[in-house]
Amino acid sequence: MFGEDVAIGIQALTKNNSLETKEDQMLDSLNRIKHLKDEVGLVKLADRITNLQKPPNLWTNEKILSYQNEAKIISSNLKKKNEYLNKRLDVKIQEYEKYTK
């Protein structure tokens, strides 16, 4: 309905659950995103910026640190997609530090 480019972008943003670990799934997705138009990377950056809010109360410190680390990996891998959003993500990552113990 939206065309092949959108379908490919959505596929790249979607983690491949057949890979064993969450880290492998994320890195695979980021690798696919890196090879597509910048707009796909913008979606991923904006998504993580939005999601770096106060974590749910039930999250352990380990989960919070893991989520923050994922954000750092996203930032590092998508640095060339959009300088403005990348800087915003880096600020959110630093602000997220207050939720770690």
What is the distance, rounded to the nearest whole angstrom, between the alpha carbons of the first and last residues? 46 Å
Assess the beta-strand content as a share of residues. Answer: under 5%
Radius of gyration computed on alpha carbons: 14 Å
CATH superfamily (homologous) name: Hypothetical protein af1432
Uncertain regions spanning at least 5 consecutive residues: none
Structural class label: mainly alpha
The count of β-strands is 0
User: What is the mean predicted local confidence, pLDDT?
Assistant: 95
Q: Which sheet architecture does the biggest sheet show?
A: none
From the 3D structure, determine the CATH topology.
Hypothetical protein af1432
The dominant shape is globular
Helix segment tally: 5
Spell out the helices and strands N to C. Answer: HHHHH
